[in-house]
Amino acid sequence: MTGDVTVISGPSGVGKGTVVRALASAHPQVWVSISATTRPPRVGERDGVDYFFIDDAAFDELIANDGLLEWATVHRSARYGTPAAPVEAAVAAGRRVILEIELQGARQVRDRLPGARYVFLAPPSDEALRDRLTGRGTETPDQVARRMETAAIELAARNEFDHIVVNDDLGQAVAELVELLGL
Ligand code: 5GP
Questions:
Q1: Is the CB of 105 under 6 A from ligand 1?
Q2: Mutate to test the pocket of ligand 1, among 12, 43, 121 (most ligand atoms within 8 A of CB)
Q3: Using an 8 Å Cβ cutoff, are 177 and 165 in contact?
Q4: Number of domains into which the chain is organized
Q5: DSSP state of 42
Q6: Is 176 helix (H, G, I), strand (E, B) or coil?
């Protein structure tokens, strides 16, 4: 599969979702992959919009059928993966494809799509990230601790990426992505 694929990774809490949504709403040629996950929906999340919320058996079946471009267990709890067929269809349709995924998944995509663009979204500082992870209010203290643990691993991998965009100001981060993607 060739085409225009951008992988956006970075620690959870850095604001990947917000940045990607802002980019997509301003640029209709951008197509954002919807992941499958075994984690339960948060309040306000919609099936088929934010994620495809599926159970473990359905996730196993996707893996067995080679239906995922990549997948990973995140924060030692739920599994997340990128359904392959919609990505292939979007690439075939000439869309600018964005995968917003964590580090382990980004590494798998790099093996399969070495020609894709790899962007690391970084927090302005470790403290800013901790504040965001704590302040989201949707996670228990145990979940926040696990997210910080994962974040430390992810931050250490930033140099594996082609580009680093610091998410200090939303508009600025989106503008940098627009430039990188040539939109
Ligand atoms: P959350 O549960 O906060 O929505 O997402 C947790 C983490 O999973 C985030 O870092 C997010 O980028 C990542 N993630 C979401 N979808 C996928 C996916 O399809 N594959 C991988 N590897 N990670 C994903």
A1: yes
A2: 12
A3: yes
A4: 1
A5: P
A6: helix
